[in-house]
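Dear U.,

Please find below the material for section 3 of the report. The protein was modelled together with zinc ion; I have listed the sequence and SMILES used, followed by the predicted complex structure.
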Amino acid sequence: MDEATARRDLIRICHLMYERSYVVSSDGNVSVRLDDGRILATPTMTCKGRMTEELIAVTDIDGRALNDQRASSELAMHLLIYEERPDVMAVCHAHPPHGTAFAVAGLAIDQPILSEVILTLGCVPLAAYGTPSTDELTEAMRPLVKHHNALLMANHGAVAYGSDLWQAFDRLETLEHTARIAILARILGGSKNLPADAIEKLINVREAAGYLGENARCQACGYLHETQLSCPTGDRPAPTSYSSSSSRNGSGKISLTREELVELLAQALTQGRPGNVW
Ligand SMILES: [Zn+2]
């Protein structure tokens, strides 16, 4: 993508994020990687609704400034994604209210309730909390980035990324829309999950069509828990909602974390009826 188009699209997306209430005040940040490796990014402490092209910060791939604008302090999150995903050329980070509500409630958006979301976005895991702009946050995200196209960050917000700015923004929008539908469905008595065979067909379709690759078949992905598909990735991260801290203590008792207990109850409930426990 040429730089003039990237600059124009970046400003348009900043304005859309603000108009759609995905950010307020100086929240959020957007970046795009140019073909020559330079990064165009939103600057620190600037309202996205008032972004103009003159405010765009330019950095190298390590975040070093190449013009007189200071890039967002959250640029490290973007640089991590570019490092882990050579296919990604743009990143949108925001605090959309419904998606962020999931992140605040400690929930991933990983229930298979909408066929098109399975086709185009995949499940959205929840990265553990890390202080914004520090290594804590990027290290919590790192194992998930390879396998997912959008993440929630606990007690913080959401990030989505793609091969260009519009794909990154569309994924952010799909994340927010899915979260909103899930919350509304819960008010109506709870959503019904797609059955395992339907999920498997959708995953096969998305791979055949090139919407998402096999790298998205991660065991952290809630969709796969009941399908016959296995994850081909060797370095799969541990599921975020099911920690490995449970242990047998030698007395025949098993101790579970709260998350593990919730997961077990969720599985029991799902087996009882085709719904979910969001
Ligand atoms: Zn943020």
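For the text of the report, you could mention the following: Residues 165-187 form the longest helix (23 residues).

Regards,
Y.
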